[in-house]
Structures are given as C-alpha cells and as structure tokens.
Amino acid sequence: MNIKTLPAPDSELDHHYWMRHALSLAEQAQASGEVPIGAVVVVNNQSIGEGWNQSVMCHDPTAHAEIIALRQAGRHQKNYRLVNATLYVTLEPCMMCVGAIMHSRIRGLVYGAPDPKKGGVAFLTRMMNIQVKRIDIKTDVLSQTCSRMLVDFFQQRRREQKAQVLKK
Q: Per the annotation, does 76 bind a ligand?
C-alpha cells in the first residue's frame, strides 16, 4: 500500500483528492477485468487501507473494494473499530458493505456514484426507514467521473460479449 497524505483535513478539496485516489484504484480493478470500483480508508488525511474489486480474481463474493480496504485499515490500526476514519468509495456501497461499514464504527462515508439498483445506503434509509447512525455521509463526490467509468466498463464488456457471440 502506498501511504498518501494531504495537509488540510475535511475540506471539499480533500474529498476530491481522495475520490480521485479511489478512482485510480478502480482503474486497477478494471485492468484486472473486474468491475471498476475503488475504495480508500483515510485517518488524519493518511491512507490506511485501500482496495479495489477482486471478486472474480479471488473467486470471493465478499472481495468488494470496501471490504478489502476496511480489512487493510483494521490490520493497520490493529483494531476493527475505525472510529476516526473516513471511507471513500467510487460507488454507493451495497448492503453487505454497508453492514461492514456500520460494524467498523467508521466516522465518515463519501461515495461518488449512486447505485439505484444495489446501493445499500439509500435502501436502508428509503425502504426500512433506518438511519445509518454515527456516520457522516457525503454523496455525489465526482459522481459523473465515477459513473462514466462504470458505464464505459459495462458498454465495453457488452461489446466484447457480442463480438464473441458473432464469432460463433
């Protein structure tokens, strides 16, 4: 893991900085043929955990970017409770990841693109009228860039699948 640090904490500039870093991690996922989602856990403007989707590569349905980043951050802190941390992720976390985020006692969640189909944050508040307590949530940080990466990825994947069908 490359440790990155940025001087002034908790500004809009920081959110963009760390989301761009998460986007660079998403590019690693895409280069591996994974859905391009990246996540970074930050404490005191220092990266303590990073991850990108690795479910296909690891044959592991739990190998989401958020889970990998949280595991790494927990090892770094020698504690699963990440009470002073903020998680930056390029896509709204799913229900599994929201559960892990809540269990980690993370202080902040910042995500880029909303996920109307599988997003766990919006689902909990909308369908079950549950507030994700003690977590400061900021949405839509660089959302167009995050969304565009995902749209481009799935369009390319569909073109490749179509080309393979035509070959046969």
A: no
